[in-house]
């Protein structure tokens, strides 16, 4: 094997390797990114839903209790 042939093969090999590596990295990044976004989005939605639900429930209960107390006091 001549030096020229070895150089050509190594250059071609390194170019192909870097192209394949960068394509693989970008595909992996986009897959991980979308997976992470969907997981984070669903976690965020469930946390927001539960927090908002508990806040809504407590406010609703306190308003109903206040109205009931006011109605009872008004009746007496």
Please give the structural blueprint.
Layout: H1 3-75
Q: Please, could you describe this protein's structure?
A:
- The chain has 1 helix and no strands.
- By secondary structure, the protein is mainly α.
- The longest helix is centred in the middle third of the chain and has 73 residues, at 3-75.
One letter per element, helices H and strands E, the order comes to H
What's the overall average pLDDT, rounded? 84
Shape: rod-shaped
Residue windows where pLDDT falls under 50 for at least 5 positions: none
Percentage of helical residues?
over 70%
Instruction: Assess the beta-strand content as a share of residues.
Output: under 5%
Round the Cα radius of gyration to an integer and report it: 32 Å
**Count of distinct strands:** 0
Count of helix runs:
1
**Distance between the ends:** 108 Å
Q: What oligomeric state is this?
A: single chain
Report the structural category.
mainly alpha
Major sheet characteristics: none
Briefly characterize the structure.
By secondary structure, this protein is an all-alpha fold. Helix content is 96%, strand content 0%. The chain is built from one helix and no strands.
Summary keywords:
76 residues, mainly alpha, rod-shaped
